Every structure is written in structure tokens, then in C-alpha cells.
Amino acid sequence: MTATVGAGRRAEKPTLDVVAREAGVSKATVSKVLNGRTDVAAGTRERVQDVIAALGYVPSTGRRPREVPPTVTVLFDAFVDLYAAQVLSGVVSAGIEEGVDVVVTHLPEGAGPESLTPAWFRGLAAKGHAGLIVVTTEIRPDQARACAEAGLGLVVVDPVSIDPTTTAQLVSVSATNWAGGVEATEHLLRLGHRRIGYAGGPPASRPAQQRLHGHLAAIGSAGVARDDDLIRMAGFRYEDGLAMARELLALPEPPTAIVAGCDASALGVMEAARHRGLRLPEDLSIVGFDDTYAAGWTSPQLTTVRQPMREMGRVALRTLLNHARGQRPETHHFELATTLVERSSTAPPHP
């Protein structure tokens, strides 16, 4: 007499769906393990293999189902600026070229990076997504590990707080922020400015710190004494630039020029200068960073440091897709060159 499994029920043959569900991973991850792919974390591979053994799963040798296009998730902290829009444009255009579906999401309002739990990453993998592109959103080393353990690739654009050189699971894409800070300040020095204010991004932001360090390096190389009264670090928003410029312009000896951490905060600097009745650029020169569309819409048009935002998005998408194909990245940290774009918001200081 043949034994049956369960209360008189016929034993069901385990499927790929069942294996993926029991292991808490996507079907794509199970397939990678079955095919001996090397781009699966050791812990994830072992868990999948244990489930396969426990269920007695045997892969089908029949005709494979039609392959569906891979899906990539892009995560933002919020959709509030032109920088994010231009990076996303690059991701989407590369996705169209590569036949990849792009899903865009953002952190819940008021939620911090702690919402990116291991369960969140496993849920993403269970939907069959190939990986995650994170843009200007804080991600911790333990979260990078959780992402890898879920079988997902991870690429971070402009990492906020994590050092990409110390986290093996992380591939990052950014611009040459330090060099851009140097370019912005050297431009003003060449025009003859010596009292240059700095209105930068959040102190905890790596790109903001790199741009500040480039600014300070240019000041030092020119033999100009560092004056900490001229340095403010608050944020990348319009409101941050407005507040920082008000403080700088209220100094007993205000700056004749200001370097802003990004284009959005540079617009706030412009507004603060107008509130004080200053002429731009005759009384105050201003340099931004990014070269978003808004830089050419201001009056005067904004001199700024261009970072290749669309190309950063394209590189991120292609790097993630190569990871899903089992290819190792050429480097774990891509840096794309910045260039200074001179417009009419800068001029020699007024005599």
C-alpha cells in the first residue's frame, strides 16, 4: 500500500513558487541558485538550498515559461526637486533601451531610513524585482546587507551618509563633488573675490561635505585665510539657501560672493540678496551646483557646477542590470566628472 502525505490527501509536487515563498525570496533568486549563479549572497543561497532539500523540489526540464522583462525599483526620499527628476530621467531612458521596467517609489511621508527593514527588501524580491536604485536616501550598512541577503542588487546614487568604499554590498554612482567645489570657488577667486561665503547642504551629507572640502581647498590654495563665519551648512532646499544667505549677508563684513550647495539653495540665496536690495551680480556673485533646468531660468542666469545627473541615472541602471546578469562591476564607486557652466550670476567684485 502506498503511503500518502497529509490526511488522506494526495501529495502535491512542490513548485518554484512554493520554494520561493518558503525561502522568502523571489523566483528569480531561486533560479539563480539552481543555475549556480554567483551573484547570490551566501546566506540566501544556503536558505534556498535547505528549502529545496526539505521539499524535495526537482526542477522541470520541460519548456520554460516566457521570460518577462526584469523590473528595477528606484527609491527616493521624496519627489521634490529637479535634481531627482533628471536622475530619474536617465534611469528611465536607459531602462527603455535595455527593455527594463522601472518602478518608482519613495519613503512614506515622515518616515526615515528605518522603514527599510529586511522584510521590506524580501517583499521587493518576492515581486521578482532585479534590484534597487536608491537616490539621495540614507541607507545603513546593515540595510545594504539585508538587500544582498534578499538576492537584490543595490546601486546608490549620491550616497547620503554611508561610505561606499567600506561596504562590499554597495555600488555607488556620484559626481566629482570635491572637484566641483574647487571649480566653483576658483571661478570666484579668478574674478577677484576674496571674501566668499559658503551656503552648503546638510552636515551629515557626504556630497555636501565633499563640496565644502573642495571649496576650502581652493580657498587655502589661493592663500586666503579660512573664516568660519562665512560657512553655513543647513540643507539643499530653497528655504535653506534663503536662511543661510540672510545670516551671511547680515555679517558686519558680508561676503561679495556665495557658493551654494545646489541650484535650489542658490535660488534662495538670490532671493535673500534681493530682500536686502543687492544687485546681482554687481553687489553679490552667486554660484550653484547641479545645473538643473532652473539654472537657465533665473534672472540673472545662474553660474553653476554641472553634474551629469541623467548620465548618473543611466550608469546606475546599467550597473544594476549587469549585476542581475551575474557580471561583476568594474568598480564599486563610479564618479562622473563635473564641469563649471559660466552664466551671468557672477562678475568681479564691485570696487
Automatic annotation (TrEMBL):
Segments forming domain HTH lacI-type: 14-68
Source organism superkingdom: Bacteria
One GO MF term attached to the UniProt entry: transcription cis-regulatory region binding
Secretion signal span: none
InterPro entries: HTH_LacI, LacI/GalR-like_sensor, Lambda_DNA-bd_dom_sf, Peripla_BP_I
Keywords per UniProt: DNA-binding, Transcription, Transcription regulation
Pfam families: LacI, Peripla_BP_3
Gene3D superfamilies per the UniProt record, alphabetical: 3.40.50.2300, lambda repressor-like DNA-binding domains (1.10.260.40)
Name of the protein: LacI family transcriptional regulator
